[in-house]
Amino acid sequence: MDKKIVFFDIDGTLLDHDKKLPESTKQAVNQLKEKGYEVAIATGRAPFMFKELRDELGIDTYISFNGQYIVLNGEVLYQNPLDVQELQALTAFAAQKNHPVVYLDHDDMRSNIEFHEHIEASISTLKLGITHPIHDPLYYENREIYQALLFCTDGEEKPYEEKFKKFDYIRWHEFSTDVLPAGGSKAKGIEVMINKLGYKKENVYAFGDGLNDIEMLSYVGNGVAMGNAHDEVKEVANYITKDVADNGIAHGLQLVGLLS
Asked: Which PANTHER family match (predicted)?
């Protein structure tokens, strides 16, 4: 039997709408592992944001920051940080527009201003136990920053897209957009990992629901969109499963033939 690997997004995929892990999902992931399949996480989150989930599911292989920081069996495999000079310039430009910025590395995150309601509104939805990062405007100095969060409303990122070409921008909240190295994606991260491990693309599966999952589901041999996924995500998927809260993961794994 050809070896197979399954990648799972977190928010809206492994975790339900209340950021809880459904019992059926936990059981399904454990069954995959028992059958000898490789199980990995592919998320836009930073590693420190999903350590408890990794521990609960016994997963130590993951793609984080939408492909910029990859860990294989607990060891760092790949790193792709943001360009520091470009990030400094973006921060200065954002200050003129009163748009806050949060910097993230693999260990933590810091804000360039003391408080902003848009930061609190969006960060609180992640249910990390914190609602606003600590103020440290120079956090990006002497550190590798893999992702920044730019706090602006829909459409306000357009000037940044035109001015700072070394970055890509993916909206994840009405008040916040991810800032990533240009060309970086979960798909690129998966490509790095499967090339290292020797998997054929037809034996690679991925589950997702968000706009940052489009490249991933398009790239793998078997892309599965959650029932709660954006329409654009469903359009590129090979399969559409049920809502995350309706045993979506377990159903999807049966749909693709990995579980009976």
From this structure: PHOSPHATASE YKRA-RELATED, PHOSPHOSERINE PHOSPHATASE
- Catalytic residue, candidates 9, 105, 178, 209: 9
Can you say whether the dihedral through the CA atoms of 26, 32, 33, 37 is positive or negative?
negative
% of the chain residues with pLDDT over 70 = 100
User: Which range among 124-128, 174-178, 202-206, 214-218 shows the weakest confidence by mean pLDDT?
Assistant: 124-128
Which pLDDT value is given to residue 2?
79
How far does CA 9 lie from the centroid of its chain?
6
| Two tokens, residue 193 | 């990992």
The pLDDT, as a whole number, for residue 28 is 98
Domains in the chain, start-ordered, CATH in brackets? 5-79+184-255 (3.40.50.1000), 84-181 (3.30.1240.10)
The arrangement of strands across the sheet holding 222-225 comes to 75-79, 69-72, 62-64, 38-42, 5-8, 204-208, 222-225, 239-240
pTM across the whole model: 0.93
Residue with tokens 């440290």: 136
Specify whether the CB–CB gap between 206 and 6 falls below 8 A. yes
Q: What are phi and psi of 208, to 5 degrees?
A: -160, 170
The closest alpha carbon to 208, from 220, 196, 192, belongs to 220
d(CA 226, CA 237): 9
Give CA–CA dist 117/151, Å, rounded. 10
Taking CA atoms, 186 is separated from 70, 117, 155, 156, in Å, by 10, 29, 23, 24
H helix count then E strand count, the chain:
9, 14
Element containing residue 32 per DSSP (H, E): helix 23-34
Can 9 be counted among the known catalytic residues?
yes
Backbone phi and psi for residue 8, each to the nearest 5 degrees, phi listed first: -120, 130
